[in-house]
Predict the 3D structure of the following.
Amino acid sequence: MRVLIGIHHLLDPNFGAPGVTLALGNALMTLGCEVDYFSFNEAFPDIREPGSSHEVRFPWKVSAHLLRVASRYDVLDITTGDAWPWARMGRPGARARHALVTRSHGLEHTFTERLRADARAGHVKLSWKYPLYRGSFRLWEVRQSLLLADQSVLLNTSDAEYARERLGVPADRISVIGHGLDAPFHALPQPRPSEPGAPLRVACVGSWLPLKGNSEMVAVATRLHALGVSFTLSLYGTGSKEDEVLAAFPAEVRPRLRVVPRYVRVELPRHLQQEEVLFFPSHSEGFGMAVVEAMASGLAPVSSPVGVAIQVVREGVTGRLIPIGDVEAQVGALRSLAEDRERLLAMRRAAQAEVQSMTWRDIAARTLSLYETLLRKR
């Protein structure tokens, strides 16, 4: 089977959506598929830092590419919002027997609703440019691609429910398929007990952004310090300069902090095995790879109920689910884990066991089965 995967990013294994796209493509190839990609790398070969203009132009680049090459492929698996011009033209050049799949790495509509809610609450400030494209026409493009595709692949049940009930996508044309864990996250050592009297080792993984909950990170660390809780906080993959991140915290809290702005993806397990708890106060996630990667590394998550956390964090068993923005509850959860290390160890071990079956081979097999079903229908 020949598959073309399209994505509106530069392909880089060390970043979220591009990294999982490459992992899926590699896993499909191990099952016998031939996989090609069409990304910003191919559409704009000379750019290093894509901007809004590249996002606006990408659907038309995809359509021009499909006009030339669609006949080579059995399946065209393209990110939401990017194949609609070609689909509306009647899929010119496609094989009589083919499948058009549109894939979401986090539904833009649910993300936009959370972003606007945060803006109304004063947590973020939206640019005047936002309503011109991302907050308007882009949402229309995404809905068009969902309605015109043979199947939509979404990452979580909340996005699937929204697409069905709010966007009018038929239920039988929606599949929920998440992500797998890369090989370095399998068969990691089982968590060991904490040293008596040692600080609670807390990690945050993700960009230093309001939607990732950076204000909660500051508030929680400040409150734990005021309560006399012994802890350390390591922030991985902030993308921001260390000084910028540290400056957001009170001076008395900074000695407890460690900032790792960037890391090579395969090194994350080594970093996380030094930690005990993942603090994940994100406001919106399509999937949230950080949660399952941390759990595989033996960390107990204290997470917002977003993305995959709803499925894998069983309250009080594999971690804690805390409402978005509830700082007091977040502080309470972390404090209780710091005070009860036996419970924390049991939770860490349960968390690691919970995600061991999440492999890219399984995700690829489910994806290939979907492709085959769609081709039989055609």
